[in-house]
Amino acid sequence: MIASGIREAREPLIGQGPYEILDVTDKERLERVVHEHEIDTIFHLAAILSAKGELKPQLAWHVNIRGLRNVLEVAREQDLTRIFHPSSIAVFGPETPKDLTPQETILRPKTVYGITKVAGELLGDYYFNNYGVDVRGVRFPGVISNVTPPGGGTTDYAVEIFYEAIKRGRYTCFVEERTVLPMIYMPDCLKATLDIMDADLSRLKHHTDFNVAGVSFSAGELALEIRKHIPDFEVSYVPDYRQEIADTWPRSVDDSAAREEWGWEPQYGLESMTSDMLDCLRSRNESGGL
Ligand code: AKB
After folding, report:
1. Could you identify the atom of ligand 1 that is nearest to the CA of residue 143?
2. Less CB within 10 Å around the terminal CB: N or C of the chain?
3. What digits encode the pLDDT tens for the residues 92-129?
């Protein structure tokens, strides 16, 4: 098993095992790395997310579409066993039902990132149907992690708020207090990734586009939950262009297809996620690692 990224390995990856610097848009190098390490499964996570994608739409198209096409082509040519390619709630748009968004629904995203994710779902299905490449993916909500700080997403506020609560006791949030979005805590995100990859292919009616729900809350509800642990925590709301993106996404999604086809069930709610996030970040802060 190897990890790869576009830059030198950083903590916490250093010393954990083999690492290759790899730009997924460089197909020849991807081919070589896959061949040399005898890779049979790729978790293809490289992407430009929604907020950065609106600032650099050509780059988002290039990385997200060229990158995926390269991975799928290498999978086809070298007969790989399985590919994981995450989709996102960004596939939805303003015409999509906002609450308990169905699995099968209107996909008319307004961001270039969302457009690349719709294309990615369809391309993955195309490679499965036409070449037998076993491509699997879920539509991730905003992912909340205490290990790697976020970058370039619209849901980044739901991670930044924890870091700022611990470091400064205040946070300026770039979406309005009322904004509700679906989120998922990293342990659940990893669980979903591994569970779908382990699922019995014969049980899957969907492949690349499963809705998965973790927990939905407004920015204001998250601030209140953090305040239960840090009573003086202050939040002000100064929405920017990311508010418009957030307003096109669902408040919650219906993930019954994932539950039925591969037994998906999240473990974390708002309370358990918040206390675990704060415990982890506090202990890193105390050891000087934040
Ligand atoms: C983003 O905000 O762009 C991502 C996503 C929901 O896919 N976190």
Report:
1. 8
2. N
3. 999 999 999 999 999 999 999 999 999 999 999 999 99
